[in-house]
Amino acid sequence: MKRAQLIAGVVLVGVVVLATVVSLFWMPFDPLRVVPGQRLLPPGPVHWLGTDGFGIDIFSRLLLGARSVLLVGIISVGLAAVVGIPLGMLAGQAGGWIDDVVMRLSDVVYALPALLLAILLASVFGASTVTAMVSIGVATIPAFARVARAGTLQVMAADYVLAARASGTSWWGVAWRHVAPNIAPVLGVQASVGFAMAILAEAALSYLGLATPRPNPTWGNMLRDAQDYIFVAPLQAVWPGLAIAMAVLGFNLLGDGLRDYLDPRLREVP
Amino acid sequence: MSEELFRAEKLTRRYHNAGREVVALSEVDLQLAPGARLGIVGESGSGKSTLVRLLAGLDRPTSGRVWFKGADITALPERRRGFLRSSVQMVFQDPRSSLNPRMRVGDIITEPLRSRLLRPQLVGVDHRTRLTEVLAAVDLDADAADRYPHEFSGGQRQRIAIARALAPKPEVLIADEPVSALDVSVRAQVLNLLTDLVAGQGLSLIVVSHDLLVVRHLCDELAVMRAGRIIESGPTDQVYLQPKTEYTAALLAAIPRIRTGPGETGDSR
Amino acid sequence: MSLLDVCDLSVTFGRRHRPALDGVCFSLDAGCRLGVIGESGSGKTVTALAVMGLLPEYARVSGKVELAGHQITHLSEAGLARLRGDVVTMVFQEPMTALDPTMRVGRQVAEVLRLHAGTESGPARAAVINMLGEVGLEDPERVADAYPHQLSGGQRQRVSLAMALINAPDLVICDEPTTALDVTVQATVLAKLNDVLDASGAACLFISHDLAVVSQVCDQVAVMLDGRIVETGSVAELFARPQHPYTQGLVATARLDQTIPGQRLPVVEDFYRPGVSR
Lengths: 270, 269, 278
Known about the structure:
The structure holds three protein chains of three kinds. Chain A is an all-alpha fold. Helix content of chain A is 75%, strand content 0%. In chain A, helix 1 (2-25) crosses helix 2 (58-94) and helix 3 runs antiparallel to helix 5. Chain B has ten helices and ten strands. In chain B, the strands form two sheets. In chain B, strands 6-7-8-3-9-10 form a six-stranded mixed β-sheet, with helices on both faces. In chain B, strands 2-1-4-5 form a four-stranded antiparallel β-sheet, with helices on one face. The longest helix of chain B has 18 residues, at 184-201. Chain B is globular, with a radius of gyration of 19 Å. By secondary structure, chain C is α/β, with parallel strands linked by helices. In chain C, 38% of the residues lie in helices and 22% in strands. A six-stranded mixed β-sheet of chain C has the order 6-7-8-3-9-10, sandwiched between helices. A four-stranded antiparallel β-sheet of chain C has the order 2-1-4-5, covered by helices on one side. In chain C, helix 4 packs across helix 5 and helix 5 packs across helix 7. The longest helix of chain C has 18 residues, at 183-200. Chain C is globular, with a radius of gyration of 19 Å. Chains in contact: A-B, A-C, B-C. Chain A binds chain B through residues 158-160, 162-170, 173, 177-178, 181-182, 264, 268, and chain B through 56, 58, 81-82, 85-86, 88-90, 92-94, 97-103, 107-108, 111-112, 114-118, 150, 161, 164-165, 167-168.
């Protein structure tokens, strides 16, 4: 059962990755060129998923959209991890006032909605993929910091850290050899779940026009375009919606699967 | 001055726990000569672990002072504690917690050798040679170095912990409940090993335990602790055979002994 | 007819693992106390879980476990739940994790009573206080209103004991109940266990790695090794004339009080080496 979950997650995530790779070499039609004569075609042998209101092949746009899903996910989760994990480890390992300062700061960021940040950045720099990535990334920092801190506290309480200190291992040695490898699994899970959140957030932002601007397709802005024709061509809205749902489900399943797979307590037989 | 290994004067350690002050150790004086084998017994919360952690320089006292080989280590900054870290090594109660599950045994054992703090003390020690030496000293196969802790039994894991403590060639071994997480059947092996090592390598030994029998077997001096103070001390035989305090007598009586007949009530009741 | 009858019980976890239990047979009469001794991994805890019907789903079980006329291996989860806490109860090694940290201990004990005896909350409280007093807790009123973390390890283990005994079960299973405790606390908990077992007349399956501890509570002992029972007998007999080499080793290592300090202690391997004799 657990294993099936993990496999389903890997397959769904694999589809997104595959779509991205394929889009780099081949797309059935130009996903940016407007063809007025071919508007709102239903799915068929030529246009597998039909065409949109500009006469552009929907399947090609979905393929191209997968790129921005991965890009935004990787960059925003990466940003959150690179800032959040060291901060969380610092807080957990140093304790005292450093812990207090870091965690209160993280609370402040946590209280700030990603949407507000996205609007702010978009109004200053103009809405782009970059502003979306930054605002999602910043909003996810506290999640990583908290998970890293909780894991670090747990490791710091173990006797092997005491033993390491008793033999003169430095602060960095403890962080690098003891804390990092032991909290890596939970952070991996957090990254996978964070990826799912980032996909959702990116879809929402681009739906609102606060991320990648047209004509470049994202699943979020495809959904928004489809809205105009919702009664004429309802299927048009189904495709990007389905893509978003599957990708989010995939990363969540992968995260849950990893959690169970990496939890040593579930592997040891009594 | 240099004739004593450890000296502690009026050692006190208080903790703040959820707004309440807990006195873990209260004005403890202690002297230990090189080559001594000291056992510290008491119930959990008696302050015995706190005391040895202060001696090992893993915690700092609220008040009082500690000397190691004549040098005051009480307020010494970490970077100048290299001599202490290489000379005093600890073995902990539960090898499941004291060995990093994600490190290979070889890396665990040589970790003390890689410490920058200890490098000046360990000039000319080759890591691989030392690894082979200490693995042999604790009766483990050389190929154990490439495996992970979870592949070993409880007794073997405690041997690994002992090997790690031996690696930087310490003078003092502090064992905090070294056998109480182990099965009785494995206990004897680890006790034999500790006895052999102390005799063979001329180590000083401090053993903390709640079990008087374990301490009696390993140590020639005994200190009984209760509520943060040493309430009785002396040569092991004397304390064991003629306890001066009721508390020590109660500790002795509590040791479970084999009760062989249904009619016999057993020594402990 | 005996209270508990275990016959040819085998348990395997996963396909590739060797069996955790391999043809285990023993029986326990009402009111009798059997100690199961062996080292970690010998299968003693698995035996206890099998009797409780608490083995995980993926365990493959064969053989017979008959408790008070019920076939444990064939019972539904609902049927098992009716037996547990009523006919058979269990005391675990770690009293901190065995008690719910968010619930006052009095309520936790009362819960067991209410679940099986259907007692109203007024009389239940009186019964709980009475039981807490019986397991040797001073000021049971105050203990009943405390949360688990406010109690000491010994007090918590007594609360577990009270929980296990309040429904007057026919069988109490104790899995290393004193291993996490100090020797002094262990002595008092064992003494109290003896008292309450005497008073209630319940049978006991006592699991431990410590022969001395087992001998304080039980008259009969079964020695487990690698999922099998290699020897059974009374404590006196087993101690005086151990038959199996492994038992001989266990007996030899159990007598730390009779050794000369500093001398080499006998170890199990002096008597028994795995793979040499079976």
